[in-house]
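Q: Given only this backbone (344 positions), what sequence would you predict?
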């Protein structure tokens, strides 16, 4: 494994990533390429993961193709990267099979550990809890685990396993707290936020409302809304009935355009979409479909069978314009109560 490319080590680049300084990671890698260096597969994998955290999924897939071109489709690094992207893209069965391929190949102990942990995480997400103890036995056989990021990943997995398996919420909370404490010593917000999401989920499941409120407040402190777009999606999806992490959003009504994701998006040819988003802007609560229909089609009485499909289509087209990755919305949220903008 090549540890150094142009004055930065693999460990230093990982540290930037785990501090959630994603824009700095991309700039560093761009500077390396501009200097004439070819990125190693390890560095290219970090770029792919960074792009995904920024919700630049198409660009992330391009990086995976680059890793494949520099090796082959059965290269453990490529397979692991591909499995990880499938996992976060909710292609769980595909991810599980690819993670398993990694563990079956002749690869480093670290990569085999990550592959097994990927298998365990997909089983947990699929609520396939029966086989996890056997995989967990294999994972614990790697102890003592030398890499700090691998230790933290295991702690957070154990927290999630006991959370979703549902038999021991006290143990789940303990693992999340251990993960948060260990990550805090290195200022690794990537793991701190994931630990806090786990703690908040335990509180919600256990009906601990006061502690849930406190934990969500802590989440707001640690999330950087200018960079951690995937994490914002996770938090808003899980806790949107309690609070949302806001995204920067600016409306220019004179020119029918919206500033989002660091760029102006013109809506002058899509006035209905602009009106839809504008009416949501400034509402802290979800706006009901009846209210949306009354605003958009004031001359018509609200008829769910007629207006709900229209509203769904408008929301879908609006998401495609304003979201970095519309499969995992950060700005335009939906729920059983209607729609809302997570905006400041």
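A: Predicted residues:
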């Amino acid at each position: 494994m090549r540890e150094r490319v142009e004055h930065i080590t693999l460990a230093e680049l990982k540290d930037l990533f785990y501090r959630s300084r994603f824009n700095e990671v991309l700039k560093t890698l761009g500077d390396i390429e501009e200097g004439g260096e070819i990125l190693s597969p390890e560095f290219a994998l970090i770029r792919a993961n960074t792009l995904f955290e920024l919700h630049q999924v198409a660009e992330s897939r391009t990086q995976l193709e680059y890793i494949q071109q520099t090796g082959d489709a059965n290269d453990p690094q490529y397979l692991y990267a591909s499995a990880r992207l499938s996992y976060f893209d909710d292609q769980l069965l595909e991810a599980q099979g690819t993670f398993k391929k990694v563990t079956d190949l002749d690869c480093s102990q670290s990569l085999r550990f990550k592959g097994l942990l990927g298998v365990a995480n997909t089983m947990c997400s699929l609520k396939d809890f029966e086989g996890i103890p056997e995989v967990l036995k294999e994972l614990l056989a790697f102890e003592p685990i030398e890499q700090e990021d691998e230790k933290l990943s295991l702690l957070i997995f154990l927290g999630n396993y006991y959370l979703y398996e549902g038999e021991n919420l006290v143990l789940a909370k303990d693992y999340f707290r251990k993960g948060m404490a260990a990550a805090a010593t290195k200022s690794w917000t990537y793991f701190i936020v994931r630990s806090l999401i786990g703690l908040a989920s335990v509180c919600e499941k256990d009906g601990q409302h006061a502690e849930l409120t406190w934990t969500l407040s802590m989440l707001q402190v640690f999330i950087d809304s200018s960079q951690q777009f995937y994490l914002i999606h996770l938090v808003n999806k899980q806790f949107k009935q309690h609070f949302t992490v806001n995204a920067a959003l600016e409306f220019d009504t004179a020119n029918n355009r919206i500033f989002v994701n660091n760029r102006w998006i013109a809506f002058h040819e899509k006035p209905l979409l602009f009106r839809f988003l504008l009416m949501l802007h400034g509402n802290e609560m979800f706006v009901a479909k009846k209210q949306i229909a009354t605003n958009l089609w004031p001359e018509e009485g609200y008829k769910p069978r007629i207006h709900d499909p229209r509203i769904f289509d408008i929301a879908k087209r609006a998401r495609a314009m304003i979201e970095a990755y519309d499969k995992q919305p950060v700005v335009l949220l939906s729920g059983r109560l209607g729609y809302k903008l997570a905006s400041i």
